[in-house]
Amino acid sequence: MIKQETYGTLSDGREVIRYTIDNGQAQVSVLNLGGIVQSLLVPDRDGKLTDVALGYDDAAGCEEFRGNYFGALIGRFGNRIGGAAFTLNGKEYKLFANDGPNHLHGGKDGFNWKLWEVAQAGENALSLYLLSPDGEEGYPGNLSVTVVYTLDGASLSIDYEARTDADTVLNLTNHTYFNLAGEGNGSIEDHLLQLNADAYTAVDGNGLTIEKVIPVEGTPFDFRTAKPIGQDIGADDEQLHNGGGYDHNFVLEPSSALTEAAVVTCPRTGIRMQVLTTQPGVQLYTGNMITPQTGKHGHFYGKRSGFCLETQHFPNGMACPSFASPVLRAGETYRQKTVYAFSAE
């Protein structure tokens, strides 16, 4: 059975509920607030269950540090939209600028700050539903979104589905920060990362993706062969300076089928995470902007305490015509899937 319990109350009076799936091999807890993955326990090389997701012990922590987006579903548009505006069908839509001049992760009150409707979708699955009304955060169309979390063995699958009654733009992702040594257990710079990408998209000084695709060959961004995340993170490289470290979209091989995007291994615990997705890109973010704070169980979180691999459409896609279009047309169905598969070695 899926366990349900109160997680706390937000300052506006909304009650946050935590749902926990425990299949005997792994355990995941998800909040109705933002669909947040609040904890994810997987076995290490000794069989010890280890929580590999950064997060907070209660709703007050989520609220205090909501700008970190720990574990949250992101929408309508993950990452940045330049100038907090886009043009669709000849009409300009103004969005909320919450990242300097740009729009980030859905705006002031994105999907990460909504209370989703949650229902059990199977013995080890949760279905989350949200209706985003026309005009919310400046986006057109009434958008209905369903996200299903499934825990299969030590694999967490995330299935996304959405429909709109008017043309809109959409880029859904999940913003879990991972530390395969265990949340609150130091830096992730020793983690070995393999990224199956021959190129990445450049960013400007504000972290905004621009229409420039750079081959990884001969750069600090070459993870085609596994190397420690921290090996080249301090290199004198313009793009690393712009991102404060890695905060870039990597270009995956186009495929409608589930394809391996990345593999990460922690030498301390032996925990290995394989990322598979149907998405065309994946954002590597190395926790460059995590400010000193207290996370779960009183654990200290700071810079580089976690990393994200956010599967996605390319950021700022409406301003970059050569990128795959993030437009969802009325009557069409958006479907994407990402799997985080864990093992130990």
What does this protein look like?
This protein has two helices and 29 strands. By secondary structure, it is mainly beta. The chain has one domain (3-344): Beta-galactosidase, Chain A, domain 5 (Distorted Sandwich). A nine-stranded antiparallel sheet has the order 11-12-13-14-29-23-22-17-20, with no helix packed on it. A five-stranded antiparallel sheet has the order 1-2-3-4-5, with no helix packed on it. β3 (27-31) and β4 form a beta hairpin. The longest helix has 6 residues, at 59-64. It starts with a strand and ends with a strand. The mean pLDDT is 97.
Strand order of the largest sheet: 11-12-13-14-29-23-22-17-20
Helix content: under 10%
Q: Runs with pLDDT <50, length 5+?
A: none
Look at the structure and give the mean pLDDT: 97
Specify Rg, calculated over alpha carbons: 19 Å
How would a crystallographer describe the biggest sheet? 9 strands, antiparallel
* Number of domain modules: 1
Cα separation of the termini = 30 Å
Report the principal-axis shape.
globular
**Care to count the β-strands?**
29
* Proportion in β-strands: 35-45%
Quickly give the structural class.
Answer: mainly beta
List the total number of helices.
2
CATH top level label: Mainly Beta
CATH topology: Beta-galactosidase, Chain A, domain 5
Q: Judging by the overall fold, what is the CATH architecture?
A: Distorted Sandwich
